[in-house]
Amino acid sequence: MRWAQLARQPALGLAGVTLVIPVMVVLGVGLGGAQNSLATLGPLSTFALPVIAMIAFWWEDWPGTMLRAPLTGLIDTLLVILAGVLFTIAGQAIVSHVDLRGVFDPTAGVRHATTFPATMPLAAAVFAAVLELTLVSEGWPLRRLNRFAGGIAALAVAWGFGILLYETLVADAGGPVSRGQFGAALVCVAVLQVAFYVLLRGWPFCRIPSRPLRLASANLFVIAGGVGACVALHRWAGLDPATVSAVAGAAVAAGLVIGMLFEGWLDSVLAPPHARLASAIGLAIGTAVLYVGLRAYAGTTDFTHAGPQDWVAYAALNAIGAGVILHVAIGRRWPFGSPVGSRALT
Fold first, then answer.
1. For 74-79, which contacts have Cβ atoms below 8 Å and span 24 or more sequence positions?
2. Is there a contact between 338 and 72 (Cβ–Cβ < 8 Å)?
3. What distances in angstroms separate CA 13 from CA 8, 134, 153, one per listed residue?
4. pLDDT-wise least confident of 49-58, 62-71, 167-176, 336-345
5. Band of residue 7 on the pLDDT scale cut at 50, 70, 90
6. pLDDT the model gives residue 343
7. N or C: which terminus of the chain carries fewer CB neighbours within 10 A?
8. Residue 235 burial by CB count (10 A; 0-12/13-18/19+): exposed, middle or buried?
């Protein structure tokens, strides 16, 4: 079959699944099983996520654009891997101290500064800040800079906010909430970021003509709504923070699959209100399917240094989510091509 025949939805999204699945497997269980992958690749991939966002949504895939596909995605991926390692070490230094065995050895004992779970709240905070600045705040005011300077500035600002949130709120750094509670709240915020700015393309906030009012209302809704949803799920639904993170992580992954991998499909066959409703229904169904499937697999694995829900959240957010962004926004859907005029979120 010629690749051109796949360059329309839903065939384009289904073809992309064949490339996302290997990334999911490698990140999810590729380092000697689920627990070892979570312990080592979890922090590395989470610290890499802000760099993925910078390259995809600020640098418009540079430096990969200097080369032809498939080298376009390959050089960007190598840059992401290198940055993930360096930022993980930086995060380790902020949380405790530099210990390379704690970064790369999943069996490192208590004498070593292991990066999981200690650095995960900081990494998640940096990524959430990047998404809030890039999507919800529309990159303002950093979009006034050229794309390279703006991207670096966005990453630096996100790190500043991430460190501030970690040092202020997380109990390990003297704050009022546990790592698990902090992480669960961030993932719930990420659900709203993805739902409204990937799946619904900024609706309904994009209808507010005044930028100050639009950005203020959007940021307030996403942050307060995410934190409020986390508190409600914990207090009223009785879910522990790990379960909240797992369910919310599945929602983020489902939103990325529908909003990026199958980008434009529902809009091409349904009127806008119906497309939004169908997207919301798809998000709910996708969340349930991913959570049940990942939780079933996690139940077959023995965890000693983490819980099955921790792996579910990681597998959804990092293994699936990162795979979708790498394929669509950085790899430009190679080798299947992309619909004319379509570049998700960029």
1. 76/330, 76/331, 77/326, 77/330, 77/331, 79/51, 79/55
2. no
3. 8, 24, 33
4. 336-345
5. low
6. 44
7. N
8. exposed
User: Would the pTM of this model clear 0.85, i.e. be above it?
Assistant: yes
Structure tokens at 288: 């349930």
- Lookup result for tokens 């497309």: 275
User: Could you tell me how many residues make up the chain?
Assistant: 346
- The pLDDT, as a whole number, for residue 156 is 97
- What one-letter code names the amino acid at 212? P
**Other Cβ atoms closer than 10 A to 224:** 12
CB-based contact 302:311 (threshold 8 Å): no
Angstrom distances, CA of residue 23 to CA of 29, 109, 127, 173, 281 = 10, 28, 19, 33, 26
User: Which tens digits make up the pLDDT trace of 141-200?
Assistant: 999 999 999 999 999 999 999 999 999 999 887 789 999 999 999 999 999 999 999 999
What's the mean per-residue pLDDT of the chain? Answer: 91
Query: Is 181 exposed, middle or buried, given 0-12, 13-18 or 19+ CB atoms closer than 10 A?
Result: buried
